[in-house]
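Async update (no meeting this week)

Hi team, since we skipped the sync, here's where things stand on the single-chain job. The sequence we agreed to prioritize is pasted below, unchanged from the tracker. I ran it this morning and attached the output directly underneath so nobody has to dig for it. Comments welcome in thread, and please keep replies under the output.
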Amino acid sequence: MGRIRYRTPVPNCEKIGNMPDSAVIRVIIVDDHPVVRFGLAAIIGLQPDMLVVAEAGSGEEACAICGREAADVVLMDLRLPGLSGLEAIRTLRKSHPKLRFIVLTTYDGDEDIHRALAAGAQAYLLKAMSHTDLACAIRTVHAGRKFIPPSVSKSLAERPPHSDLSGREMQVLELIVKGHSNKEIGDALSISEATVKWHVNMILSRLNVTDRTQATVAALQRGIVHLP
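Output:
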């Protein structure tokens, strides 16, 4: 891939001090949309202290590329074909503990944010952010710090306490969102209808809602469950 490198002033980034010109941040872009990758590469290519060393269109491709390309920061989309962005981050952190990750997504639900940070991302950005925020985030995480914009921090702060669901509760919730009855859920998971009802009650309590419809709305809005 051709790399356009212009010697432009480094954007003011209040999160960290100035970096020496000799410190080039090597970046890998992971997104399944070629146009998005092109735009990100163009923005990064204008930064005098950054270099895009590779691009990937899937989580599997990202893992393979990181195995052969030396990089400092990975821009990772959450929704990828096959291996998800979260799964790719978890996998790469085990094999490349020094890599730093910035999640770049359109999803602003508090559960999406919580899961990304728990997986090991150092920054969470929405694709509507400015190019200066992107550059600042890359420099910040490269310096070993987190970059959480105010809007993202606000969403995370509004996440209800004690709202983590167990694996079985997640399975039940996913089927609730798809419109299945308790009997259908029990048949699908090979559990009794009474057990399904118990899980449903626990889900309603954890999500702080009163019925299945509210649970479905909350699950989709917060990013707990995503429809295909």
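Quick observations from my side:
The mean pLDDT is 87.
The first strand starts at residue 25 and ends at 30.
Reply here if anything looks off.
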